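Exercise 3.2. Students should predict the tertiary structure of the chain below and write it as structure tokens, then compare their answer with the key that follows.

Predict this chain's 3D structure.
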Amino acid sequence: MKRAVLFSIVVLALVLVGCTDTGTLRIDNETNNDVWFNIDGNSQVTLQSGYYYTKDWNLAVSIFGNEEKDVNVSFNGYHLFSGHTIRTVKPGSTSRFNVYADGGGIRINNNSSAFTITHVYISPSSSSTWGDDQLGYDTIGPQSWRSWTVSSGYWDIKVRDNWGDEFTSFNNYIYLDQTTHFNYTGFLRTDDPKGDKARNAANYSEESQDYRIEAK
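Answer key:
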């Protein structure tokens, strides 16, 4: 009799205390290029196109209710503007976060052997001005490259090298989830006579949707 009572007490204690079950977060890279993310501010993870990443937590399950965990995910990518999301992970289930492209890539390759790119201007074709230098205090040395994520649409590109020569390319359509390469060699400069940018912008009847640009 005593054994039966003791067994019942043990079972009741286990029910009251509960147990644990695995809750999983799964991140799928649905873009055509690398995505970078971190979870709850921990080390950055690089996730290649078409791959997925999972992380598990042991969460409590009891008659009083199941434990849930809010997970903070910060993300970025070549075809993805930086952002943040919160995903709730529950025991016994998988919470999925599919990452889709919301921009396209511009990559400027310095294919020269001796020249350095000192300034880069990336401006919507509908804009009459070049805007800010996207390199700031940085440069692109020989055989190096830099990239930017931009909204899909038409863009104008201008680079200036350490000789003061300028190279321009107008009306380049940047596609969603694709990277367009611009190759600089240091020769065949095109210069940008004053007014060319404004005249090109006049071909557009109105400013396009919310244009965005982000260095990578």
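Discussion points: The CA atoms of residues 71 and 209 lie 32 Å apart. The first strand starts at residue 19 and ends at 29.
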